[in-house]
Each structure stands twice: as structure tokens, then as C-alpha cells.
Write a structure and sequence with these properties.
Blueprint: E1 2-6, E2 9-12, E3 17-24, E4 27-38, E5 45-50, E6 61-63, E7 71-76, E8 81-86, E9 95-105, E10 110-114, E11 118-123
Parallel strand pairs: 2-11
Antiparallel strand pairs: 1-3, 3-8, 4-5, 4-9, 5-6, 7-8, 9-10, 9-11
Length: 124
């Protein structure tokens, strides 16, 4: 299973972006999906997570305090894709954003997979 993230870019403070992350390869199932970020010189931190919802659509979700009310995570299980809508961006949101998924694939075990990261830069 591989994850491909996209959608990062350079925006002014107050701007918005939509990050996408699609899973590909031999996929039997995907459980939780999440976005993390790593600001310059800092450790990677959880931004938001979401569980599958089956017939109800997206399942339970959550986000970290710094992004609550500004960032929204969603997923399209038919496309094996997770999104992160980032609004009202602040300079402190500058980071490399990584997607992560717990997937069951060709290895016949559940494993956590990381995407390659997409850079978000916010100017003040």
C-alpha cells in the first residue's frame, strides 16, 4: 500500500488549501486515516484523524486544539482518499503535512503507512 499526498503550496495568512492523500496498491481495507504535520525544527504532530463510517459515510473524527474550527478532515472510501481542508491559515501552520493510514494490504497484516509529505508555507 502506498500513499500519495498533494495540495500543498504557498499562501498568505488567512488563505486556504485542500490537501489530498490517495492510497494505492493491493488494498483490502483501510481503517483510520490521519494527517500529521512537522513544522521546521519541531517534531511531527497529529493534526486530525478520521475513521471509516461504512454506510453512514465518514465515521468519528477529531483534530488537535491548534486547528480546531479551521481544519476539516474528510474521506472518500470509494476512492481510498483522505482530505484536509485547511482554512484561515496562520504562519504557524507552516509545515510539511503527512498523511497516514492503517491499511490491510498484500502483506496480509494491518500496517501503518505514511505518505511522502506535502509542504504548506504561509506568509504573514
Amino acid at each position: 500500500v502506498q500513499l500519495q499526498a498533494s495540495g500543498g503550496g504557498f499562501v498568505q495568512a488567512g488563505g486556504c488549501l485542500r490537501l489530498s492523500c490517495s492510497a494505492s496498491g493491493s488494498i483490502s481495507d483501510i481503517n483510520e486515516m490521519a494527517w500529521y504535520r512537522q513544522p521546521p525544527g519541531k517534531e511531527r504532530e497529529l493534526v486530525a484523524f478520521i475513521y471509516p463510517g461504512g454506510s453512514r459515510g465518514s465515521g468519528s473524527r477529531g483534530s488537535s486544539d491548534p486547528v480546531k474550527g479551521r481544519f476539516t478532515i474528510s474521506r472518500d472510501d470509494a476512492k481510498n482518499t483522505v482530505y484536509l481542508q485547511v482554512n484561515s491559515l496562520k504562519p504557524e501552520d507552516k509545515a510539511v503535512y503527512y498523511c497516514n493510514a492503517r491499511a490491510f494490504g498484500g502483506s496480509d497484516v494491518w500496517e501503518y503507512v505514511w505518505g511522502q509529505g506535502t509542504q504548506v508555507t504561509v506568509s504573514s
